[in-house]
Amino acid sequence: MEISSFPEDIKKLVIPEPSGRFVYHCLGCGTDWGIDELLYTCPGCNSVLLIEDRDWDRLKKIPGEMWRRIFDYRKMIDVPSMKGIFLFYELIAPVIPLEDVICLGEGHTPVVEANGSLQEWVGLRFFVKNDGQNPSASFKDRGMASAFSFINYAMKKKGMERVLAVCASTGDTSASAALYAAYLGDRVKSVVLLPHGKVTPQQLAQPLGNGATVLEIPGVFDDCMKVVEFLADNYPVALLNSKNAWRIKGQESYSYEIAQAFNYDLENYVIVAPIGNAGNITAILSGFLNLYDLGIITALPQVVGVQSEHANPVYLYYLEPDSKKRRFSPVKVKPSVAQAAMIGNPVSMPRVIYLVDKYRKIAGDESFIVEEVKEQEIMEAMLIANRNGHIVCTQGGEGIAGLRKALRRGAVEKSKTAIVDSTAHILKFLVFQEKYFANNFEPEFEIEVNDALRNFPKLVSPSGLEKTPASGVSLTKAEFDLFVRRTAEEIADLLGIERKKKD
């Protein structure tokens, strides 16, 4: 739609100009640092950072109702840099000029209502937001679009010719970082560190295909993360994990899209997401707080974070009801089918603590809860969801299992409507479906197979035929017609259907 057709009060606001005064804000000592340098931790006390806009109040001059109209009209314009997460430009990174924005089609992923059977199994009305339909097939693209847009902007501003971008990954981060780095060509070289033997073949193939340098090291993700942090602290590299606060800004778009999808009325809604490295749950909380502060939404939705028993440090932290007695302790993870969430020492934990405190002060203690689920529950939720027409990954299964459990213990009200984050595409995690169907899970996964959820191909090969189609085999018309008839008859018998009666 042409902007000339828009109402006069929208025309001047729909294409934004750079604005804001962004800083890195330390959650440890409270110091603000300029964004001219790529910082990942506070130079003063080594704590994690959040990006904050010190000119945020300028946005409050526009009423919440007008912001809703601006964002809704922007969905109709044909401006490439605003087709993705930067539709919400002022809320994400308005210091980056639109011409420096990198957009590969990320964001605005489908929100699909669960069918009646699946809703009955879970116990309430809910939707799945399919973030596996992002370009690299996971939600990580939201953060990478923001982080690489800033890198692109910073390189041009400083005249930098080349950047070495490094990340640790359980699979999805590496795929996303490699994709966005490849788009920038020779200007950015991507290096990813993966835990040896703990990434699915599909996930490993992605950074290799995008030309990244892929390095496997012993241990789990937490060990890879320590190596990457050492590199970022001691060498001239750009860190692309969620420790990079620009990643969090991009991932806030998840909250903005949900608000827009449900007409900015979230009073009776529940948002469910796996926790993992805690960057996504951080961004979700931050995004909704931003919308609330600007009056774009008038009530905060309940947020449910979910963790497996095999990687549950955030769940254990919030088990203690008294905030003064809580102490965070990393855990040693065990193998999990929710592989992307198999993290025992999430780098964004200080951000979670800070934002949950703000969230609960506005909306009450039950506005944010953490649910713990078994590996068995994760696999069964994923398989049942996909049998009901979804493309839910194991992390999505973790979310559905967590929602079901929270509902049964009364932590979520049945009258609410839920949105579950399926963070990646099921095709990335087929190895776990294959293990389930073949009943060959290693004992440490603690999964017992339910035969009713298994599925196999069945060979149909009628006996008594002299010839059947095969490479190098020629059939006469009569032989082929006999093969077709006998095969169809056997299939009909297998399916329990009877031949049509002729008039």
Task: Explain briefly what this protein structure is.
The protein is of the alpha/beta class.
Structural description of this entry:
The mean pLDDT is 95. Helix 6 runs parallel beside helix 7, helix 11 packs parallel to helix 13 and helix 14 (375-387) crosses helix 15 (394-408). With 503 residues, this protein is α/β, with parallel strands linked by helices. It has a 6-stranded mixed β-sheet with strand order 4-5-13-10-11-12, sandwiched between helices. A 4-stranded parallel β-sheet has the order 8-7-6-9, with helices on both faces. The protein is built from 17 helices and 13 strands. The chain is 38% helix and 13% strand. It has helices spanning 8-14, 64-74, 89-92, 116-122, 140-158, 172-183, 201-209, 221-234, 245-251, 253-261, 279-293, 313-319, 349-363, 375-387, 394-408, 430-438, 477-495, and strands spanning 22-26, 32-34, 49-53, 111-113, 126-130, 163-168, 188-195, 213-217, 238-239, 269-274, 302-308, 368-373, 417-422. The radius of gyration is 25 Å and the shape is globular. Strand 10, helix 11 (279-293) and strand 11 (302-308) form a beta-alpha-beta unit. It folds into 3 domains: 111-135 and 252-453, Rossmann fold (3-Layer(aba) Sandwich), CATH 3.40.50; 139-244, Rossmann fold, CATH 3.40.50.1100; 458-503, no CATH class.
